[in-house]
Write a structure and sequence with these properties.
Length: 364
């Protein structure tokens, strides 16, 4: 949990792009003030359900056309996206290159890879596409050793005006998620979970926060990338509670877990990486492995968030260019799909200025 403490002690979270975005959208000032303040209580613009830059709108199509120009994308946009990401992170106290180098040179990480990789896993076609500006998507060392600094930068972007460290931002983001989950469990499940699965656990940051919030539960961190899992396992070694956590190389749509065997399935920042059919398959599999009344919870970018809707063009273009399923993610009805997959008590919480958390209970 404290992996980045040492490099984030004097972070000033002043990511200019978000600040500029909030200034630009004066027409939403009244609403925005409810969500973008110093401590950033969350809220949404009720009249607009998604950004114009995603889906079928003209702006979205223009952006898609620019992205599909390979010369423009490979030669200019991709290197620019990477440079911006790394420089912004390092300016804000996240030692991106140092962490990546340290993890890349760590023999224990390679050892963990050998222990964790399940060679019989079959990767879905959508998972083999370039992603986040990595040609091999999540299936490479570079993506794995950079995932931790990228996750800390992501949390800092949520509160651009607050003078907080990367660790504080991460804790705030995760506490708001586990807080929403805890409230749902107490209200609708009524008992402590025995087993929680963190599907798409990546390098284990979400897994450890959920595990800390449910200190009597067993946790399974499951991911399709053995590279991410190798970093997760290495970082978790010796951490408090690590004896309750296991790391599994597998597919969220086909976990190989028994029917009715799990109390909570969590998907944090996974759905935006998936096409619509995969999102439905993930929910269907969650419904299969959950016990009656068991809880499904996901968090990701909030299509209704004015911050997300008003991202500067350079940012949303770069984001769309590295996340190929954005048009689907921002337009699908997550709540409706959950109900279709057998869940009730479905509701959405705006857990921070950029993200929503959607929860539901498997019908008994
Ligand atoms: C952005 S990361 C999520 C990180 C983590 N949950 C967190 O909150 O910090 C998305 C992760 O989902 C994984 N993933 C994507 N599709 C998946 C699938 N169908 N099954 C299992 N893992 C998947 C990717 O490999 C990646 O590690």
């Amino acid at each position: 949990m404290t992996a980045v403490m040492s490099f984030a002690t004097s972070t000033r979270a002043t990511l200019g792009a978000d600040v500029a975005a909030s200034r630009r959208s004066g027409r939403r000032v009244a609403r925005r003030s409810a969500i973008g303040g110093a401590s950033g209580s969350a809220g949404t613009a009720d009249d607009k359900v998604k950004p114009d830059w995603a889906g079928d709108d003209l702006l979205s199509k223009v952006v898609d056309a620019a992205i599909s120009n390979k010369v423009l994308y490979e030669g200019i946009m991709k290197p620019m996206a990477r440079r911006t990401l790394i420089n912004t992170a390092e300016k804000n106290g996240v030692a991106w290159r140092d962490i990546a180098e340290e993890l890349g040179n760590e023999p224990a990480v390679k050892q963990a890879f050998a222990e964790i990789e399940n060679k019989s896993v079959e990767y879905p076609e959508y998972y083999l596409q370039p992603f986040h500006a990595y040609a091999e998507g999540n299936l490479c060392w570079q993506a794995a050793v950079e995932a931790e600094p990228a996750t800390y930068s992501m949390a800092l972007r949520v509160w651009p005006k607050d003078r907080i460290t990367a660790d504080t931002a991460q804790k705030r983001l995760r506490d708001s998620y586990t807080g929403a989950l805890r409230a749902h469990v107490d209200e609708f499940y009524g008992k402590e979970p025995d087993t929680i699965v963190d599907v798409g656990c990546s390098v284990g940051i979400s897994t450890r926060y959920i595990s800390d919030a449910f200190p009597n539960s067993k946790m399974v961190g499951l991911d399709l990338s053995p590279y991410m899992l190798a970093v997760a396992k290495h970082r978790d070694a010796g951490e408090p509670g690590s004896e309750r956590r296991t790391w599994v190389h597998g597919k969220g749509e086909d976990t190989k877990m028994a029917d009715n065997s799990v109390d909570i399935v969590s998907l944090a920042f996974v759905i935006h990486e998936c096409p619509e059919y995969a999102t439905r398959a993930l929910m269907t599999e969650a419904a299969r492995i959950l016990k009656p009344g068991g809880v499904f919870v996901m968090t990701d970018n909030n299509p209704k968030s004015p911050v997300i809707q008003n991202l500067p063009p350079a940012l949303f273009t770069l984001m769309k260019s590295t996340e190929p399923h954005s048009n689907e993610y921002y337009t699908i009805d997550i709540e409706g799909m959950l109900r279709e997959c057998g869940f009730e008590h479905v509701h959405t919480e705006n857990t921070d200025p950029r993200h929503r958390t959607v929860l539901g209970s498997l019908k008994k």
